[in-house]
Design a protein that fits this description.
It is built from 12 helices and 15 strands. Strand 7, helix 6 and strand 8 form a beta-alpha-beta unit. It is of the alpha/beta class. The strands form 4 sheets. It has a 7-stranded mixed sheet with strand order 2-10-9-8-7-3-4, with helices on both faces. Bound molecules: pyridoxal-5'-phosphate. Pyridoxal-5'-phosphate binds next to helix 3.
């Protein structure tokens, strides 16, 4: 039968739309948004100044190749700018990689509690997302490898992962790459790399530089505090860069984002302050919430995953904290209905949440 109106390609309407973290608490004057892993320190003041300056000339198209930004990134990380592609957030790049490397009938592996954009990007191409179970909320390389078939064209690994905050040591990532077929692209999503303080962690730069089937994606949304501008970048082999450049929007990164990104990446003192703040309060939150009797998954990122006894308790705690203007993130969509995710906030926000959970538990007892 002929359809009576245009039909999306098969699979599109099976996608569960991404639901961003809440940002308001009705009736509460002072709100602390701890639901989207944004930085409590905001962006570098140099980034804000650069953004404002470009704002005086919004009539001009940006440089479509974002060359000054790629050079600044290359300088900061010691990378060849020709092997970098910038995007409107790393979401843009994850979707472009899926579009460039997946087609109907292909498979892309992600981990059970992996970032939700992976199955969405996969299904948008007509390919099938395959979930590999984790062990103690940590990606399991053997479980991923056990799901590889001749149809597997892509493996998405968030390292560290959102919403669990856990990471895979570099030796394990290397073992994964070595065991994957040469025609399977390994996408290492290192959105939270700047926060990690572990000797056995590597964001992916070395693997990209030494192999032909690994790409690393990064973002300016987290430690650089530029989430609103939508800015990310990837570093990949020349042939992957070439494929992505052919399908990306010709001006996929806007002028204010380019200018702010350059200033942000050069303000290393600001990044260091944000990292220090995170290291201190991540440990504090993990300990203090743990003392209240709620398990917290050990995190190396800028958020913690707090486990409640059941889904009902997690929802009730969320409602209780929201009434106080403390907005955390329910993570049922990540198959974690009994947990809440909380971004590391300002000292004030962190203390209020711990007090709030204490009061909630006292109330529920
Ligand atoms: C693991 C991971 N990757 C990528 C992103 C997307 O970041 P953006 O599109 O803002 O660069 C996020 C954002 O929450 C994330 O948690």
């Amino acid at each position: 039968m002929t359809a009576t109106r245009p039909q999306p390609r098969p699979g599109v309407l099976d996608i569960a739309p991404y639901v961003p973290g809440k940002s308001s608490a009705p009736g509460v004057e002072k709100v602390f948004k701890l639901s989207s892993n944004e930085t409590p320190l905001g962006p570098s003041e140099h980034a804000i100044a650069a953004y404002r300056k470009v704002g005086e000339h919004l009539e001009d198209y940006p440089d479509g190749s974002a060359s000054a930004l790629r050079e600044a990134i290359g300088e900061a990380f010691g990378l060849d700018p020709d092997r970098i592609v910038c995007g409107a957030g790393s979401d843009d790049l994850l979707n472009l990689l899926a579009r460039a490397f997946l087609k109907d009938g292909d498979e892309a592996i992600h981990t059970t509690h992996g970032f939700l954009v992976y199955p969405i990007a996969t299904m948008g191409t007509g390919a099938t997302p395959i979930a590999a179970p984790e062990t103690n909320f940590i990606a399991n390389v053997d479980a991923i490898l056990a799901r590889v078939t001749p149809r597997t064209k892509l493996v998405f690994l968030a390292n560290p992962n959102n919403p669990t905050g856990t990471y895979v040591p570099f030796d394990e990532v290397k073992r994964l790459q070595r065991a994957l077929p040469a025609n399977t692209l390994l996408v290492l999503d290192a959105a939270y790399a700047e926060y990690v303080r572990r000797n056995d962690y590597e964001s992916g730069i070395e693997l990209v530089a030494t192999t032909d089937n690994v790409v690393m994606t990064r973002t300016f949304s987290k430690i650089y505090g530029l989430a609103s501008l939508r800015l990310g970048w990837m570093y990949g082999p020349a042939h992957v860069v070439d494929a992505v450049n052919r399908i990306r929007g010709p001006f996929n990164v806007n002028g204010p984002a380019i200018a702010a990104g350059i200033a942000a990446i050069r303000d290393t003192a600001h990044v260091e302050r944000a990292r220090e703040h995170n290291t201190r309060w991540l440990a504090w939150l993990t300990e203090e919430i743990g003392k209240l009797g709620l398990p917290v998954t050990p995190s190396v990122a800028n958020f913690v995953l707090i486990h409640f006894p059941d889904a009902k308790a997690a929802k009730a705690a969320d409602a209780f904290l929201t009434k106080r203007g403390l907005i955390l993130r329910q993570v049922g969509a990540y198959k974690l209905p009994s947990a809440l995710r909380m971004s590391v906030g300002t000292e004030e926000a962190n203390r209020l949440v711990v007090q709030g959970i204490k009061d909630f538990l006292g109330k529920a007892a």
